[in-house]
Amino acid sequence: VMELFRLIALVWKERRTKMQNLKFAFSSIMAHKMRSFLTMIGIIIGVSSVVVIMALGDSMSRQVNKNMTKSQKNIQVFFSPIKSKDGSFTQKQSALTLSGKEEDVHVEPPKTQESWVKEAAKLKGVDGYYVTNSTNVTLTYKDKKVERASLTGGNMTYMSAVENKIIAGRDLREQDYRDFASVILLDEELAKSLFDSPQAALNQIISANGYSYRVIGVYSSPAVKSAKMFGVGGLPITTNASVAANFNVEEISNIVFRVNDTSLTPTLGPELARKMTEIAGVQQGEYQVVDETAAFAEVQQIFGFMTAIISAIAGISLFVGGTGVMNIMLVSVTERTREIGLRKALGATRANILVQFLIESMILTLLGGVIGLVSAAGLTTLAGALLKNMMEGIEIGVSLPIALFSLAVSASVGMIFGVLPANKASKLDPIEALRYE
């Protein structure tokens, strides 16, 4: 029983000592409010910078994964003069095709028929298809002009396949394709650029590189905001026959098969490419499918590398803030020499003094970390609001792991840079300290 009481007394004494150290730390910080805040500025800037960068990097990475999952529902097939083993388009083949150094590169590609694509789409697991062509045009209406607009010509299944939403007017109809009508759909941003509103654009005649088109509808799409980021003026849509006839391009230059079960994509892609090759009856070259996995992995790697580099640069401010904490703590030790001597004379051990100043240093940096975290939360909210106007669906915020990591880093900075001042304080001779003026 006596041993139990002794153990309880020791635990209570230890707890009381820790509470006293916390009390001393807060008393010292509150006694010099302005000095403490100025000391924390480096930590605040460093933590907020690192947190914002990590939050942006994490959000971008999640967006890439989201886009990858979405894009796996689209199996893009095209003709290549260079044959592959399984119908997959490799980087080496891409380089050869672009350089034109291989003899097979000069193979004349077949004129793709939509009937071939429709037949290939009957394979089990394929939920639909669409074919398109495109060209860059300058759109004009009276004295207004939009350059670098990417005019897309799609077949009848295109609009429903890409899930564009009509917000004014109507969609393309079978009669438009049958009559080779010069009609066009404008995206919402493009309609606002040329007209006062989407409704005002309906039935107006606009010019695309000199060819007249009547606006029959206005649509909205997440792809438009992404295109704006790369300087594309707009994404107007018409029939692929109209684009082919007016702008001297192939009627079908892009073939996309749609699947809802993305687990089928790796096996179904090469199978579709082989089916297209068989239906087309080509003897040289073949149809192939683009493998986007490597491209997305490379994009993620680039994002990760950029995040690491910028975080390392932001970490320099944490180092500068840490040296500021060390400097102030050394000043604090000098100012409180008599206090340290008095505590030692009353029985405080070297460990007690060491822990006291370490706790004070850690609390100082932790407070800076909390303020930096709050600032980072505000900045990421602002960044999220700005990026949502450019990238549909992106979600930016400070996650719990990032918040805990930032607080751990700020506490570690306090511990590392507080060791030297704390060690100096713990080594003071009590008699000499009491004599200090």
Short summary of the structure?
This protein has 437 residues and is an alpha+beta fold. 60% of the residues lie in helices and 16% in strands.
Q: How many individual helices?
A: 16
The average pLDDT score comes to 80
- Radius of gyration over alpha carbons? 34 Å
Which regions contain 5 or more consecutive residues with pLDDT less than 50?
89-104
How far apart the termini lie comes to: 49 Å
What is the percent of helical residues?
Answer: 55-70%
Number of strands: 11
Order of helices and strands: HHEEHHEEHEHEHHEEHEHEHEHHHHH
Main beta sheet: strand number and arrangement? 11 strands, mixed
Structural class: alpha+beta
Approximate shape: elongated
Explain how this protein is built.
The protein is 60% helix and 16% strand. The chain has 437 residues and is α+β, with helices and mostly antiparallel strands. Strands 1, 2, 3, 4, 5, 6, 7, 8, 9, 10 and 11 form an eleven-stranded mixed sheet that branches. Helix 4 (114-120) crosses helix 11 (265-280) and helix 12 runs parallel beside helix 15 (400-426). The longest helix is centred in the C-terminal third of the chain and has 43 residues, at 293-335. Mean pLDDT is 80; it is low at 89-104.
